[in-house]
Recover the amino acids of this structure.
């Protein structure tokens, strides 16, 4: 159930690659005078970078709000998402009230 956290890192990494590819593509396009091949390579990098940058954004937009685990399990103290019904570590019911002190 920790796939959301992995997704976030993957998305940020892919977007970083996209930005880097766009910047590199722009640099190649600007310096095309040195080598005509730079136009092709720069354009290719630009398209790839935009795709790598836009695709994660479409994944972002599918989520209303980015899930951040902030509810602590009463049994094992693992952080869980507010929307989860059961603890992702021990499976305890998250809606269950803590055992009353006797
Ligand atoms: Zn738990």
């Amino acid at each position: 159930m920790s796939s959301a956290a992995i997704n976030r890192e993957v998305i940020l990494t892919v977007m970083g690659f996209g930005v880097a590819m766009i910047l590199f593509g722009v640099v190649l396009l600007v310096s095309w005078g040195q080598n005509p091949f730079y136009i092709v390579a720069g354009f290719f990098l630009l398209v790839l970078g935009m795709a790598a940058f836009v695709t994660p954004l479409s994944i972002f937009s599918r989520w209303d709000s980015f899930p951040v685990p902030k509810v602590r399990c009463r049994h094992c103290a693992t952080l869980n998402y507010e929307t989860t019904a059961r603890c992702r570590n021990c499976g305890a019911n998250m809606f269950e009230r803590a055992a009353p002190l006797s």
Q: What stands out?
A: Helices lie at 3-30, 37-62.
